[in-house]
Specification:
The structure holds 2 protein chains of 2 kinds. By secondary structure, chain A is α+β, with helices and mostly antiparallel strands. Helices cover about 25% and strands about 35% of the residues of chain A. Chain A is built from 4 helices and 7 strands, in the order H-H-H-E-E-H-E-E-E-E-E. Chain B is α+β, with helices and mostly antiparallel strands. Chain B is globular, with a radius of gyration of 19 Å. Classes of the chains: A alpha+beta, B alpha+beta. Chains A and B meet through helix 4 and strand 7 of A and strand 2, helix 3, helix 7 and helix 8 of B.
Chain lengths: ~190, ~260
């Protein structure tokens, strides 16, 4: 701890709040506030997955929202293309009900996961729609086996009266094209 | 499969799904034509899909969920007693065929449109021959599992005694309507992707079988189901009527394997 605080003294970090906050065209505070709001949403979606609150996680999606994991980065759409996941809210409900079903013997014990989300960049800030890119690392435990998955999220977010909702959550796994040792059963 | 394409050829669609099973390759092949397990092993997926399928039907005006839900809910709606209606044909060298299920000749608009294109390409007589081929699933022992009506192919590559790589491909029938490809794609994504809610159950069971076989629990596995009821004609073993869950395919594979293992150089 002592060395850490020494280092801080040498290169003091400017407090972000002192800078004038840039205004967006609609007059609302952009910049830090928006960045903070979006980061909180991404952290919340990761937290809901890790705490297995899957219905609350599904509720983060817009009615026509899609969770999509392409098998390779060049894919531009899931329509008519092979996909590891390409799920609307109905298919998400199937997955949730299946995993929680008392007769889902293959899913006992349930998977434990731990997501870390970082590198959050707002790529596009249009009127009611945002495009956000971030990076994730997920550690997963089942029985005595640990697996690691990592990659990037691209979120298309829609502004609603209840805050942002996910239109598309694109998940590009760095290991998407590698052979899967067993399978994925819950969203990454 | 090529015959089923109006253009006489199939196109390999890129993105092979590769999944590793932590079990011996023979367990996977024994599972492929087994008619006894689906309604039990996959019941949680079948029931969950059936529940959502009914909700969608209630909500939508058409009163019908997309066909892809049926691919999953069939595991719940086709109950265990119905699986004996199917039949397997078992050929020398371990090869086997499962005859049609899930309706090989459905009458939905997409299939009827496909039938029209096929008749135009082949003529009525040849068309009837092609779609009349009563095959749902073919096993080419010991390396390939092919579902030609859904254009799926799984290649089996043993990596070690307890590790097996499956490479899974799907195909586009050249000249067929897009809807026919979409059906194949839906099955590929739902049943064969690395996030499948179906094969996940099988893989877990294979692992458990392998663990059991590696233990000191017992030296023998019984493949005796419906033994003595199968019908043999010209070296081909057919399962008897209402005996579709006969373990004839496993017996057939083990016979071929024993012969390979004891063959002289």
């Amino acid at each position: 701890m002592a060395t850490k605080s020494k280092g801080r003294k040498k290169a003091p970090v400017k407090k972000p709040g002192r800078k004038p906050v840039p205004k967006r065209a609609n007059g609302k505070n952009a910049g830090h506030d928006l960045q903070h709001e979006i980061e909180q949403l991404l952290y919340r979606q990761a937290e809901l997955l890790d705490s297995q609150q899957w219905q609350a996680w599904i509720d983060l999606f817009a009615d026509d929202g899609v969770y999509w994991m392409p098998p390779e980065p060049s894919h531009k759409t899931w329509e008519g293309m092979p996909a590891i996941f390409a799920e609307d809210k109905n298919l998400m409900a199937v997955r949730m009900k299946r995993v929680l079903h008392p007769d889902a013997w293959s899913q006992r014990p349930l998977w434990g996961t731990n997501h870390v989300v970082s590198n959050v960049q707002i790529l596009k800030d249009a009127k009611d729609e945002l495009q956000v890119r971030s990076r994730f690392h997920m550690m997963e435990l089942r029985r005595d086996d640990v697996r690691h998955f990592a990659g990037s999220y691209t979120h298309h977010l829609q502004k609603t009266k209840d805050g942002y909702r996910i239109k598309v959550q694109r998940v590009d796994m760095t290991n998407a094209q590698a052979a899967y040792d067993y399978v994925l059963q819950v969203w990454v | 499969m090529c015959d089923r394409a109006p253009g006489g050829e199939v196109e390999i669609v890129p993105n092979c799904f590769r999944v590793i099973q932590r079990s011996n390759w023979k367990i996977f092949l024994e599972n492929q034509l087994d008619a006894l397990h689906p309604s039990v092993t996959h019941q949680s997926t079948g029931r969950a899909a059936h529940e959502v399928e009914k909700e969608i039907a209630k909500r939508t005006r058409k009163g019908e969920a997309p066909l892809s839900y049926h691919m999953l809910s069939a595991f719940a709606t086709v109950t265990i007693d119905k699986w004996d209606n199917f039949q397997t044909l078992n050929y020398p060298h371990g090869h086997c065929i499962l005859t049609g299920y899930m309706g090989l000749r459905p009458q939905d608009p997409d299939t009827l449109a496909y039938d029209k294109v096929m008749i135009k390409a082949y003529g009525q007589k040849r068309f009837e021959e092609i779609v009349g081929v009563n095959i749902h699933h073919v096993l080419i022992y010991p390396g390939l599992s092919v579902q030609s009506p859904l254009q799926q192919l799984r290649a089996v590559r043993p990596l070690g005694v307890d590790r097996t790589l499956t490479e899974i491909w799907h195909f586009r029938l050249k000249g067929a309507p897009e809807a026919i490809y979409r059906r194949s794609l839906a099955y590929y994504n739902l049943v064969n992707s690395p996030a499948t809610l179906v094969n996940a159950d099988d893989l877990e069971n294979f692992w458990k079988c392998h663990q059991g076989l590696s233990s000191d629990g017992g030296d023998w596995v019984s493949f005796a189901r419906h033994l003595g009821r199968d019908i043999e004609k010209n070296g081909v073993v057919e399962t008897a009527p209402n005996c579709g869950t006969s373990e004839a395919p496993m017996r057939n594979q083990m016979k071929a394997w024993a012969r390979y293992m004891t063959a002289e150089k």
